[in-house]
């Protein structure tokens, strides 16, 4: 054993010498879901596009998406059984900063090639949505509000925000139909019933999968997001579809706020193509 080092320290020191091969593996956290996973896969893709062999480690949660995005798993994701002793483990989190961790062009290229470029379950879900709602509103509730720790970080006055965002969307033209996509539709029925005064309101079919919900966001010509990485990816994909003229381009609205755990509470994931709601009555902490 090396002098003055514990066994674990000595092992780590030896591994740091061994793990100097050409291949890098992003150490994907085991507890993150699709919205966060996509940022790790994006990072691996942009490094590979530069000729740098970087991959993302497969997790039990990421395996759920292998059939939906097979090309992505063929090229960007490796399992633990495929790890090499010489692979460099890269622990970088959360890799979500638009304009810092990736550019708009890199984001578009990843979406076009890995999410839309080949026949996939996701492409099939998109094809089923015809016509899309005039305005889709994505409301993230779940553990953001049910778990005290996350509520302290992520909660804000969603009702007041939706009022402001809907008014901004109305300024671009009459709203003829609204679709609510949420992990808590009961809360939406209770708190957002006033939306029916603006236009007929619908929701996804019973039992709609997460993949189908993502497709609903991506297909919408006008989209209002809350502070959700899942929602952000719906907006990113919508940008690509609108640019290809598959859907009429009208706009995406998102809150400037993401989390009190982020510098300045700011949502640094927001695309520079989106309309940002900078403030709401009473403030984000109101």
Automatic annotation (TrEMBL):
<dbReference type="Pfam" id="PF01531">
    <property type="entry name" value="Glyco_transf_11"/>
</dbReference>
<dbReference type="GO" id="GO:0016020">
    <property type="term" value="C:membrane"/>
</dbReference>
<dbReference type="GO" id="GO:0005975">
    <property type="term" value="P:carbohydrate metabolic process"/>
</dbReference>
<keyword id="KW-0328">Glycosyltransferase</keyword>
<keyword id="KW-0808">Transferase</keyword>
<dbReference type="GO" id="GO:0008107">
    <property type="term" value="F:galactoside 2-alpha-L-fucosyltransferase activity"/>
</dbReference>
<protein>
    <recommendedName>
        <fullName>Glycosyl transferase family 11</fullName>
    </recommendedName>
</protein>
<dbReference type="InterPro" id="IPR002516">
    <property type="entry name" value="Glyco_trans_11"/>
</dbReference>
